[in-house]
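With this grant's support, the team has encoded backbone shapes as discrete tokens. A representative record is reproduced below.
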Amino acid sequence: MTWRSPLALMRDALRGQRAREKDLRNLVSNLPYEGLEKAKQPNRHFPSNAIKTTKYTLLLFIPMNLFEQFHRLANIYFVGLAILNFIPVVNAFQPEVALIPICVILSLTALKDAWEDFRRYQSDRKLNNTPCLIYSKEKQFMERRWKDVRVGDFVKVVCNEIVPADLLLLHTSDPNSVCHIETANLDGETNLKQRTVVSGLLFEPESFSGIVVCEKPNNNLNHFKCYEKPDKERAGAGIESLLLRGCTVRNTDHAVGFVVYAHETKSMLNNNGPRYKRSKLERKLNIDVIFCVILLFTMCLVGALPPYLVPDSSGHLDSPSLSGFYMFFTLIILLQILIPISLYVSIELVKIGQIFFVTNDTDLFDEETDSRIQCKALNITEDLGQIEYVFSDKTGTLTENKMVFRRCSIMGTEYPHKENIRLAVLGEPESEEEVIFDQRPQSLQTGWSLDAEDTNPRDTTQRRGSRHRSKVTGIAQSDVAFSSPLETEVIPDKKLLQQISRAESSSGSRKTDPYLDFFLALAICNTVVVSMATAQRRRSDNLRYEAESPDEAALVYAAKAYGFILLARTPDSVTVRLPSGEDLVFKVLDTLTFDSNRKRMSVLVQHPITKEYVLYTKGADYAIMELLGTPYAQHHLDCYAKEGLRTLCVTKKVVSAKVYESWSVDRQRALAAIDNKEELIMDTAVQLETNLSLLATGIEDRLQENVPDTIMALREAGIQVWVLTGDKPETAVNIGYACRLLEEEDLIALVIDGRTLTMALSPDLQERFVDLAKRCRSVLCCRVTPLQKSRVVKVIREKLKVMTLAVDGANDVNMIQAADIGIGISGQEGMQAVMASDFAISRFRHLKKLLLVHGHWCYTRLANMIIYFFYKNVQAYVNLLFWYQFFCGFSGTAMIDYWLMIFFNLFFTSAPPIMFGIMDKDVSAEVLLGVPELYRIGQGAGEYKFSTFWVSILDAFYQSLVCFFIPYLAYQDSDIDIFTFGTPLNTISLFTILLHLSIEIKAWTVVHWVIMLGSVALYFVVTLAYSAICVTCNPPSNPYWILQSQMADPMFYLICLISTVVALLPYTFHVMRNSITPSPIVQARHLDRLDHSEREQWIKEWRSF
């Protein structure tokens, strides 16, 4: 080690202190400076509380919006061509006419942006003008607006009111100095959380002269530190004393706080807006656009060559290089629609329409939670039809997260609670006697078990009961958050009841029997908030529980079923009623909250009778077993895990007064610390949680309805399903068999735990792990952390180049965001995954229809629409104009009126492909669900391949040849003018591309007929009107009375009929091929024509084959 002088060490320490001070901000009260000019106010440098989410102003909207739109290269390209058209030597159209298409696109986008910004403006104004109460020099709270709140103000928030800024809690109406808040607006959780008043600070606004030092604004919702100076002890305050903007005060008359962050609140800094994702189909589309650019340049180069070879009237070459240069740009202007200007706008409209039908599917609506599917990512709907790997969590995703108290082991005797098993399965109790297994331990022990990750109150969240909270009163309509009959209707084991009765009698007044300790631990070691009506405060049947996780609700109700009723909880005490009716008030000395490193929580209380210091702890079995004085119950834990029960350990430890006093000093020092506070708090918790005594229980978390059927369907669809869980391997394997992820006939499956997975994901073994995993029919990852889950998803996605989907019903945000598509399940646990997801569903079974039906439809519809769009543009005008150049000396002349060319793409042919992309159904939903193998078409990009794109382009070239040369040969040697020749071409092109689309449509509805016939009618109405009134619209020629004359000539109808039929002849070969060697999709369409019973029989035979 290098020796350093004391002076150098001191200098480094000072530098470190300065660096830490840079991360802090000093705040003072605004009260003494009220009414002074802004320059004299010490908090003037901090932003006000007014929010502004609008992007534009009224005066600068047009330039700012145009600047934003010109970030798209396509817009610059088309504007550049429109400007180029103003140059006389290269123009192909009337200059003002050439501006119309791009102006229409820019205007539509601008109108959309203006409407969205106006809605943001209205929302901002409503929020900024929300009333609030601010303390003033008049020594009372005056009504102000949210926009008037400043850093350093004292703000009062009343019950059911939303907090206007981030407030340091100084005072509440609650005698226990706590404030209950609901954070649904921040993290989706509707269960109540407690915030406590800063210790050591008296609420006296007039004499508040200290400086509040807090950390600079950041987006960490779970961390905050501050202290007041001058203060000899410098007692620190953390997130437990911070009311975040957007939270709602509940069950507290009022609370007063000091504003530490105004506009820079944690919720505002977390509002990053929607994430932008590009779909796989969009990436392919961009490549094909490049091919179109190459094709356009090739055609223009071909058209630019003749000036080198064609002499002028005097027989001399007229500046061949310059003429060719001019002609190249003239043809680019003329053939520009080969790059579809409206394609991206049409795709956005199609996706909006697809989302509308997905969100209104009644099969994806859950009546129990009164929720429908939420689509948050509008630009990746087609990716739902190309998923190859699904990564799923277990708890709250595959399972109900509705807990049934199934088993417990006390003093080595197991009580199976068979009636609760029957309640879980059938919803009704069974009266037969339970069988009890008696295995005496070597020493007297007590404890309980369930999975670690499920004990975290921060990582679990709402249930239906609290979701139905009234928006007006904020009082839950049900009796408990996370409550269901499965949790509340616990049927006690008869022999265990008898044992408890004997224990109460034998323990006398001390109440320290292990049986009593077990249920006291269940009632005390949690964060359940108890509330009840004031008039009924002592009636246990009127209790209302607010549990932060389903586990805690199940355990509290299990204790209640045996007579150990949690009556009240304050920061300083817990009141529990015993079966005898006696109420015990335990003094709460400290609560060691759950964290992801320890995987446990503890509550240190003082027994009201024995005065002993008792530590109750609960946590994951692997986190608890190593802390036991004498571990003995592993056998029961393994048995519970093999039955698929979630196992959690609950322990007890009696702490001596001397140990407590010494530990308490360290604990208070850690709580008062400013720097490294979290580490110090964790060290004190670990210091106390040793030499524990154990009990054991098992809680069942049932599979959701139709989970096995959904997983089987996904596997038949060619989707690999991985389950990533924090459970024990035995539990995970049991669940794997229950949900049919694992089956007896599987040749190979992989079950890997977190420790092994860490090594498998190392750079040296990563390739071998991926190679092994892709050969397995099923993969189960057990005891994995959220970070490991996201790493697995990233590795598989990047190494195998596959489309991945992550689905979670809790808080695995990293895994959700690592996948191509993230799906959150808004069920019983956390809502963080839902808020970070691209799609949110309420049940896992909805994934089946979302992928196999809507995913397939969205992909095939959009893929076919894009292919059709390219075909339409190439066939309709680009090639027709290009062939005409061979007969006009490559002069860049068009044989169709410019206005009709513009109307053709903007009005006559724009609606049909959009309708096609929104409403077409190549196969019915019933057949897609019955034959999951059809989903493989999207996985292999069957509807949008490289070959499919070029076949459609070649088909467009063929049709353009037919549409051009049949009229040309028919009118050869006649004296018709240019527009008389172009009008039949225009009409034939319209009929051909609409009939082409009619053949592609697989499911006709009234909407299809109206739009298709309406497009034809609109074409004739507009063209006839234009021909009737346009006399000098397009000098030197004009389209006056052209279509009227054509429609009086039988030759016109004959040409239109013959050209359209010949152009569509290749479909004859397509029909013959499908008749001889039908594809799976063609066979599936045949099933749609059968009656229901016959169709079911065919589906069974198909799946068995």
Notes: The longest helix spans residues 846-885. The domain at 374-397+704-841 is CATH 3.40.50.1000 (Rossmann fold). The chain has five domains: 47-129, 133-270, 374-397+704-841, 446-699, 856-921+936-1066.
